[in-house]
Amino acid sequence: MGAVTTFPQGRAWTVADLEQFPENDGNRYELIDGVLVVSPSPAVRHQIVSAQLHLLLAANCPVDLRVLAAPTDVVLADDTVVVPDLIVARRSDFTSKILPVAPLLAVEILSPSNRLFELNIKHDRYRRAGVRSYWIVDPDRPSLTAWALNKDNYRQIAEVSGEQSFTAADPYEVTITPNALLD
Questions:
Q1: What is the pTM of this model?
Q2: What is the pLDDT of residue 64?
Q3: CA neighbor of 108 nearest in space, from 100, 117, 97
Q4: Taking a C-beta distance cutoff of 8 angstroms, is the pair 117, 97 a contact?
Q5: For 86, which of 60, 107, 137, 140 could close a Cys bridge (C-beta 3.0–4.6 Å)?
Q6: Which SS3 state, helix, strand or coil, does residue 118 take?
Q7: C-alpha distances in Å from residue 156, one per residue of 40, 101, 150
Q8: What would the pLDDT profile of 131-157 be if each residue is shown by its tens digit?
Q9: Going by CATH, does the domain composed of 42-182 fall within 3.40.50.300?
Q10: β-sheet bridge partners, residue 168
């Protein structure tokens, strides 16, 4: 018989509770302010966009930074663990298992099941945690929307679709063309 997972009752979920879940079971487990969010594995189109964007970001990444694709747990607080589709962070900020601080860039790729969650709840949680740059890629449009942290609020700095391009300056210079992410 395998290990028994106990669920918190009458209190918010914590990082310690999340650590009891099995790895590689096909689900993505996240905590947002103590609330457990479970997402299924992404579809093929989502994975194609993620892989193409990962290659593009990695090819331009400075040596002191690292680009990682999901699943990588990003611990923003004791009650908040997110799993962005892609992150860019300082190499020195990673532990052997997690990123215990806000990344410089968090990228989320929309799926039909996560659209409102990514555009609202995670957007706000990344802002509160101090994630400097937040991008959302919509493979169905295809499009990219980018925000930059300005003091305590996000300011939209780009919204491009199809063959339009966006050249990011932060965390480093890279040019993204949404249609090219589907090749």
A1: 0.86
A2: 98
A3: 117
A4: no
A5: 107
A6: helix
A7: 29, 23, 10
A8: 999 999 999 999 999 999 999 999 999
A9: no
A10: 174
Average pLDDT, the chain: 89
Locate the domains of the chain by residue range: 42-182
Instruction: Quote the tokens at residue 29.
Output: 């487990």
Spatial strand order of the sheet with 27-32 comes to 35-40, 27-32, 80-82, 74-77
Q: Which residue type is seen at 103?
A: P
What tokens does 87 get? 């992150």
Cβ atoms 159, 176 nearer than 8 A: no
pLDDT < 50 regions, the chain = 1-4
Q: Which whole-number Å values give the CA distances from 84 to 5, 47, 165, in the listed order? A: 24, 13, 22
pLDDT for 2 = 44
- Nearest Cα residue to 114 out of 88, 132, 140: 140
Q: Minimal CA–CA distance to 178: which of 127, 141, 133, 135?
A: 141
